[in-house]
Specification:
globular, binds guanosine-5'-triphosphate, 7-stranded parallel beta sheet, Rossmann fold, alpha/beta, Single alpha-helices involved in coiled-coils or other helix-helix interfaces, about 60% helix, binds magnesium ion, single chain, P-loop_NTPase, GTPase_ArgK, 7 strands, about 325 residues, GTPase activity, 3 domains
């Protein structure tokens, strides 16, 4: 594969080249890994930045529907929109790909949209790297907005919020009990809460739910990156396409204020550092899973059990074999 010409086609915004490059960064093959690194290094020179918006919410809350409506609205404003998904639950992946194809029907036909479902059966670490690199590819391909969708399971919100400029939490209208169900951690990550399905019979409940969350947000925190009035809770209807323009205006105002305060750049720098450290950790842990390392661990472990070696002496021997000086 000619990496340079693939890179040049990505810089021109060609979606087929972008899709091919994402397949390359997803590959576990060592030669592909080397090509992916070469490609990403080549593209990093473009220095393009998209607005990265992370979007999380429980199954059925309307993420796909929201992305379709919101994405279409952005496209009508002349923007180019990429959609990526982080879905570490392998059982759901097949279904969600099919579901999203039908739910993002209009968006998937737009030439200024690019939709990439999550690869199935990857562990979270692999998904994180693949998503980060896919984001970088979308930025090089001059997408104005990159939406990163994740279903709220386990650690995936943290992963997505650590690669987003804005993190949105989509919630369903519900009684006060539901409020307890949202983990404090995710409330603290959210830059904006959108209560979806504010239409028809659900409208009144959605308005109440939104007021509850707005109250909770005010009680919960004041972060340095939040200007006056943020974080906000708002109601939207993805189906009736209600509240989307207002939500977008708020997002833009938040972005502008963070750019002016320097938080935007500081946050991106901190995220890069975070991922660097994560990569080092992951690579070190991977060294422990090679057949040789497993054998050594078992062997040394047996000596520790009989008292032949102290735990710390055995650990030193193990580490010396993993990290030869
Ligand atoms: N009334 C109403 N229904 C909605 C709205 N948005 C989504 N729905 C419905 O909610 C259901 C789930 O929507 P999806 O967009 O598939 O939800 P999701 O969060 O992507 O779900 P998963 O992909 O399974 O996690 C569908 O039946 C939608 O039609 C809305 O704004 N109003
Ligand atoms: Mg969905």
């Amino acid at each position: 594969m000619d990496i340079r010409s693939l890179g040049d086609r990505i810089l021109k915004g060609e979606r087929r080249a972008l899709a091919r490059a994402i397949t390359l960064v997803e590959s576990g093959r060592e030669d592909h890994r080397a090509q992916a690194t070469e490609l990403l290094t080549h593209l990093a020179k473009s220095n393009r930045q998209s607005l990265r918006i992370g979007l999380s919410g429980t199954p059925g809350v309307g993420k796909s529907t929201f992305i379709e409506s919101f994405g279409m609205m952005l496209i009508e404003q002349g923007l180019r929109v990429a959609v990526l998904a982080v879905d570490p639950s392998s059982t759901r992946s097949g279904g969600s790909i099919l579901g999203d194809k039908t739910r993002m029907e209009r968006l998937s036909r737009e030439k200024n949209a690019f939709i990439r479902p999550s690869p199935s059966q990857s562990h979270l670490g692999g998904v994180a790297r693949r998503t980060r690199e896919a984001i970088a590819l979308c930025e090089a391909a001059a997408f104005d907005v990159v939406l990163i969708e994740t279903v709220g399971v386990g650690q995936s919100e943290t992963v997505v919020s650590e690669m987003s400029d804005l993190f949105l939490l989509l919630l369903a209208p519900a009684g006060g009990d539901e409020l307890q169900g949202v983990k404090r951690g995710i409330m603290e990550m959210a830059d904006m809460i959108l209560v979806n399905k504010a239409d028809g019979d659900l409208k009144a409940t959605a308005t109440r739910t939104c007021a509850d969350y707005a109250g909770a947000l005010r009680l919960l925190r004041k972060r340095p990156q939040d200007p006056e009035g943020f974080p906000k809770a708002m109601t939207v209807s993805a189906v009736e396409e209600h509240g989307l323009e207002k939500a977008w205006a708020e997002m833009q105002s938040l972005v502008q204020s963070r750019r002016e305060s320097g938080h935007w750049d500081a946050n991106r720098a901190a995220q890069a550092q975070y991922w660097f450290e994560q990569e080092v950790r992951a690579a070190l842990l991977a060294r422990l899973t090679t057949p040789q390392a497993r054998t050594d661990m078992a062997h040394l472990g047996a000596q520790v059990r009989t008292g032949e070696l102290s735990p710390s002496a055995a650990a030193e021997t193990m580490l010396a074999s993993l990290l030869p000086r």
